[in-house]
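Ligand: glutathione. Inputs:
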Amino acid sequence: MKLYDLELSGNCYKIRLFLNLIQQPVELVQVNVLKGEQKTPEFTAINPRAQIPALQDGDFGLGDSHAILVYLAEKFARDDWYPTEPETRARIQFWLSISANEMARGLADARLVKLFGAGLDYERATQTAATSLTLLEHHLQNHNWLVGDGPTIADLAVFPYVALAGDAHIDLNPYPAVRAWITRIYDLPNFLSMPGQIAAEQTV
Ligand SMILES: N[C@@H](CCC(=O)N[C@@H](CS)C(=O)NCC(=O)O)C(=O)O
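Predicted complex:
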């Protein structure tokens, strides 16, 4: 199995983290998006959206971090990370949508501006980030995990850009329940870190 990857991509990190947590080996193939390597015909045959991450598993190719999380969880870890009850699945999908929308347009866009100089509206991104962090904070004041009693792919989808808030120059101090949740994820067996994450001592 190959993961088309970039170390500094939070979307790619979702997949690297999950595969490490479930101890599934993968071959990492670096894609330099600044050089446009995601636009080659070979790559768009795997992901027509011309974005990383993308996965190649035998004959099966797939793009999108959320689709890949669902695929890998179904295949390797359904009972633990993607339980089958309709209510649980639907709640997980709710958070995958938050990840693909509010987290992407908020925390991830703000990080793109501050870390890579992207020409995006930083003010708007920070407002979206504040709204989604407040939503997350309220949820986590009464729950240890986003869905159910243990970690699921919902946590892994939402977590990366939250833990990378420092790169986006966004302070997590007003969100103590979010910081406690980050600590719980850091403490998972076989956790894998990525550069730029909030330091463990800042989470308590
Ligand atoms: N919704 C997609 C977003 C993927 C995405 O934005 N990938 C970025 C890197 S983090 C990318 O490939 N950017 C290069 C481009 O769009 O040309 C996902 O969750 O995988």
